[in-house]
Amino acid sequence: MSVVKINAITVPPDKQERFEERFRGRAGAVEQTPGFEWFELLRPTEGTDQYLVYTRWSSEEAYEAWQSSQDFDRAHDGGGDTLAPAAAHSAHLWSYQVLESAGPRANQENQV
Question: Keyword Isomerase on this protein (predicted)?
């Protein structure tokens, strides 16, 4: 059963552009990690300054292996800028098991 990890990070408005820039420039090592299934960075649109970092894993063990890896440490070292301390005390990790999941249905009319 897949597991989802959602990191909810409050980013002050004056740091949001830099926060997004850091994600655009990420190395992408997580995509090569065994058990990794999905990543999304969600930008708040109204009513909050909390970004959500969504990752999906084949198992809790796969996530824990990533979290204890050197690639994880490199990805989360803060890049030497002032963003990491600004967000460090305002991050919350939520964990979920996937019970159901669905994608778009194939359109019957378009199938041959």
Answer: no
CA-angle at 101, arms to 105 and 59, nearest 5°: 140
How many angstroms separate the CA atoms of 80 and 94, rounded? Answer: 26
Cβ proximity of 5 and 63 under 8 Å: yes
Number of C-beta neighbours around residue 19 at 10 A: 19
pTM: 0.77
Percent of the chain with pLDDT over 70: 80
CATH number at residue 26: 3.30.70.100
* Count of beta carbons in the 10 Å neighbourhood of residue 38: 12
Q: Does pLDDT of 107 surpass 50?
A: yes
